[in-house]
Amino acid sequence: MRKDIIENKIQGWFNREYQRRGVRSMRPSRAYDQFIELLQVKSGRRLLDIGCGPGQVLQTAVKSGLSTIGVDLSIEALRLAKYISPKSGLILTSAGNLPFPDQYFDYITLIGVLEHFTEMEKSILEIQRVAKNDAFFCIMVPNSRTLYWQILEKFHYGDNQGNENAYPLNYWKDLFIENNFRILDLKRDKWRMKKISGILQRNGSFSSGMQKLIEKIIPIQFAHQFIFLLTKAPVAGK
Length: 238
Prior knowledge:
This protein has helices spanning 3-21, 33-39, 56-63, 75-84, 120-129, 147-156, 169-178, 191-202, 208-217, and strands spanning 46-50, 67-72, 89-92, 105-111, 131-142, 181-188, 225-232.
């Protein structure tokens, strides 16, 4: 199937999802703080959120004093983002066609986005083009080694209109290294565990200590999603 047909299919799926569910399909705004905290941002600098959805990352970044722009394929997502993060610039476009000059952004975020790309490596080149040489990237991607994803693949994603693809940790590491990123840090996404623990705590059956113990016992390669902090890899001879 041609790339443009696939992208139109993905765009249509996201538009329908945001029309149907709005921000209910997303985490609450406080769940996005972890990404801005990991970047250790400095006020006054520029952040680009790719696949910004309804704008929760942008909202958090604005509160941290950043100049922010969000891009998304979905016009419905951008309509929501206009209200959630009104101080952010919003542009309807894909990651493979970013209307910005070279080396423009200090920070770039892709939160649950990269796994939807039809041409992952080509889009990564475009993302790196608009990032400064000392820019920081925060990218969250899903893990195919979880029961959750294996069930989805087997029973729910036969059509997979959103083109969502999960991979194991080593695949993601290799993808970033082979595409000229340097991995600075790797974290597990804690929101799902916090969500589960919050439910159990209300029932009196879970403690924060138990949560920390589970995270210590379960290796990061079995985390539901991975959060990478990256920079551009140094160019040889420079």
